[in-house]
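Record Carbohydrate sulfotransferase, 179 aa.
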Amino acid sequence: PDAIKHRLRTYKKFLFVRHPIERVLSAFRNKFEKNYTSSAYFKKRFGVKIIKKYRSGIYPEEVPETGDGVKFSEFISYLIDTKPENLNEHWAPVSSMCHPCHVRYHIIGKYETLAADAEYILRLVGAPPFVHFPEVIPSKTTAVVESYVDTLTTRQKQGLVKIYEDDFRIFNYHFRNLI
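=>
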């Protein structure tokens, strides 16, 4: 505890955030739609339960043991029904994990301005001028947010906004065009 307090008092602290809905969608696509090695764990751990609970008209023996095939709307229903403290770090609100109201961050950068914000932090901490943040590859998620959100009911959209309301407010993101 003393070492932690020392770091919190003396280190430069920064946090990077992303639009909450885009972050949730990115996590969903990465963990449930892709076939990465790590995706298999999430599909089996969460996907099977999500399909069993939220897929209407499916018999238990029809649920794939692998957890493949979770729909975005099913995933959102799962998020809405899960206690905030039980949400996985990949989709839990950033404000509940990083405590921006308790930790005095020097910089809160945004994914949307990652390159410029990272460069600013490097200069702030005194990195040599030849040290730069790697090239940022634009997100493919941004272009498809609307099509995924359109699959949700009004109740699901409102529930999603409620889960991430602190992130929207604290980090100055907007959701009005989503519901």
